[in-house]
Amino acid sequence: MKFSESWLREWVNPALDSTALSEQLSMAGLEVDGMDKVAGDFHGVVVGEVVECGKHPEADKLQVTKVNIGGAELLDIVCGAKNCRLGLKVAVATVGAVLPGNFEIKKAKLRGQPSHGMLCSFSELGMADDSDGIIELPVDAPIGQDLRHYLALDDLSIEVDLTPNRADCLGIKGLAREVAVLNKLSVCEPEISAVPATISDSKAIQLLAPAACPRYLGRVIRNVNLSAASPLWLTEKLRRCGVRSIDPVVDVTNYVLLELGHPMHAFDLAKLDGDIQVRFAHSGEKLTLLDGNEVTLQDNTLLIADQQKALAMAGIFGGLHSGVTAETTDIFLESAFFAPQLIAGKARQYGLHTDASHRYERGVDPELQRTAMERATALLLQIVGGEAGPVVEAVAPEHLPQKAPILLTEAKLDRILGHQIAKTEVSDILSRLGLKVTETADGWQVLVPGYRFDISIAEDLIEEVARVYGYNNIPNVAPVAALKMRSFKEAALSVDTMRQLLVDRGYQEAITYSFVDPKVQQSLFPGVDALVLPNPISADMSAMRLNLWPGLLQAVQYNQSRQQNRLRLFEYGLKFIPDATAEGGVRQVPVIGGVIVGSLANEHWSIAERPVDFFDIKGDVEALLGLLSANEQVRFSAAEHSALHPGQTAQVWVNEQAAGYLGALHPEAERKLGIKGKAYLFELELAALGERHIVQAQELSKYPANRRDLAIVVKSDVHFADIVASIKKVGVNQLVDLKLFDVYTGQGVADGFKSLAIALTLQDKARTLEDKDIQQVVNQVVSVLKDDFDATLRD
Q1: d(CA 277, CA 280)
Q2: What does residue 520 show for φ and ψ, rounded to 5 degrees?
């Protein structure tokens, strides 16, 4: 925001120069981006009056004038401006004056006529980029006075870069309030009195969207004269704030915007049909804006309308067909409060950004509307004349912002600031900020005014105290910390270790959204209800994932459609299980999962190509579980899962606790998702894995190991894992290795049976095993297998 320093000093005038004032504002959080002079460097320019004006005898476009600048003689000056006329008060650069660009005025002759000076335009004095003619000063401008002094041109235009939370400073009133607080001064506000109604004309107002617009004021002003020009003091203040003068009505509303920080708008009364309505747009409704562009409105856009049509986008942009023109004689002036959350983002939705939307979406004082209306009315009657009707107000008090008291304790203030400020000083700072403060035994209870939308919690109050007290006044004390060795539990199995193992096995880590397509998830988990988002990013990201597989499979499908046929992906993240007993109604479970599809190895002339199978994914899971260093406590069992192929699904158990699933993707899900080739998946819950067993170092046996091979015949449905468990019970101390090295079915083995060839490796730590010792263990193994599985030795 740009503002004129001299205008600010009309409200509050601290004993600081421009540089110090700029530094003070920046340190208070209102960062100053730049300071520019409001006029070029010149001297020798005074106020004059044209007392004679006639055509140049030898040039049609020039005029010969005599100008009174208060001296004994009149100045002869030749001028080419079309607006030069008798009786006009003008800016006169006298002989010897120096204009911007180091241009010196000298005596001269133009087409034979003497010219002892120059009548200046705004552009020639560095006050504008271009201008239509010479400066027209007010009729009461004192002849002979230095123009810099008369127009107070030793002024600066200061630009502050306000953060979005400081909407209260988007006006001279807010800035003055801030400067006054920082310098312990009072604000000298202009007196704004109610303008009495001289006519009874009015417009009824209907609030059809009270939550979006809880307060709307309107006023009819008749018989305005829009041919009148805005006074120089008004246009100058607008110019120094970076706003171009347009016409008296727009200039006044812009002036109120800059002075009070409150946007306003005026309609041509003759173009309004019936009552004023504040409502949301109908879907597909059209509106032609003031810039001539037609927009198709969405039904979330708040409108100002009459009984027949839309008039303006509320808080954003006026409509062309209801706007004030040079032919307007009667106007309807509005002043309203719009809820920030209803205006936020709406201008960008249509590719717009206006001064009004900039303020409304950040928050406007909900108590300022009547003050703004009275200020604008008084200025309009002063400039364009007319007769004002009564102010009509429609309000829905229950929808106006309500501020709850905030409690701040001394202990919290001291702890966060790291510095103690006297309680009386804190009370003074908060009071000067316009807050209603009540001291309590341990702190303060504070009621925040409506214009401070940024203050809602105790931390906001602490920020206010710190910046007004002065960040430079808070001692810069470095924190004291002692070095401490970080403890690390060796038994903890870190996710990074698991990640690295999978990467080493050829996987790539994927990161997918926690929001998934409910249709994709339903194809994997039919009949299972997921948590559906009330405001999803899009329809295909509207459900929280029940498993990592939906995201991973979509990543597979995406890559396959781009000629990537061999894929090995894994992901670590959370799955979200609806659970009424959990906090928030959802249980968040950390899991790690993966998918493989395509060939086992990259294409190579020395490697036979084969697709991945169930045992490849099982091997990867076994490698992960091997990090636990407790293989005897891990087992796999045949299982069923809605997302996996019947007969190619296994459940993983760790310490007899279900830890996850692995298997082939169900053919029906494979078809629905468009997966090419057989996909194999796994998922493990990290909490179920527990801690890994720490390997205990033991002395190696110096005695020889002995191997004995057994070939046993068992029923086909017997699991080798169960056989291993039985054998380990027999040779607890001496059995050091056990391997299955052959499985045979066919000739010589009855139907429904299978032959398993098992290698037993026996070794003792204290002595060399004799044949009778080895045979005793082998006999015990054969006996246990016969008892447990009805196994027989194969001939």
Answers
A1: 10
A2: -65, -45
Angle 191-196-199 from CA coordinates, rounded to 5°: 150
Q: How many Cα atoms within 13 Å fall on the side-chain side of residue 489? A: 8
* SS3 state of residue 585: helix
What is the spatial distance between Cα 70 and Cα 150, in angstroms, rounded to a whole number? Answer: 15
Q: Return all residues near 464 (Cβ < 8 A) that are at least 6 apart.
A: 429, 430, 433, 455
The least confident of 299-313, 360-374, 597-611 is 597-611
Q: How far apart are the first and last CA of the chain?
A: 98
Q: Which residue has the higher pLDDT, 474 or 490?
A: 474
**For range 52-79, the mean pLDDT:** 91
Helices 248-260 and 172-183: crossing angle, nearest 10°? 30
Answer positive or negative: Cα dihedral of 488, 490, 495, 497.
positive
pLDDT greater than 80 at residue 632: no
Check residue 130 and give its pLDDT: 82
**What is the C-alpha to C-alpha distance for residues 558 and 517, in angstroms, rounded to an integer?**
14
Q: Which DSSP symbol is given to 473?
A: G
Q: Which two tokens stand for residue 200?
A: 């009874």
**Average pLDDT, integer, range 102-111:** 91
What one-character DSSP code corresponds to residue 480? P
- Is 683 within 8 Å of 548 (Cβ atoms)? yes
- Given this model, what pLDDT does residue 204 score? 96
Place of tokens 């027949």: 308
Question: Looking at the DSSP assignment, which residues form a beta bridge with residue 302?
Answer: 280
Q: What is the pLDDT of residue 790?
A: 92
Q: Using alpha carbons, select from 340, 91, 351 the residue that is nearest to residue 213.
A: 340
Confidence of residue 732 (pLDDT cuts 50, 70, 90): low
Q: Residue 577 in contact with residue 561, Cβ under 8 Å? A: no
Please calculate the CA angle 775-777-783 and round it to the nearest 5 degrees: 100
What percentage of residues in the chain have a pLDDT greater than 70?
99
Q: Strand pairing of 286-288 and 294-296? A: antiparallel
Q: What is the pTM of this model?
A: 0.67
Maximum CA extent, the chain: 143
Q: Residue 124: phi, psi to the nearest 5?
A: -70, -20
Report d(CA 110, CA 133) in Å as an integer.
Answer: 19
Question: Which residues touch 578 (CB under 8 Å, ≥6 apart)?
Answer: 529, 530, 531, 585, 586, 587
Which pLDDT value is given to residue 731? 65
Q: How far apart are CA 248 and CA 266, in angstroms?
A: 11
Provide the residue type at 14 as one letter. Answer: P
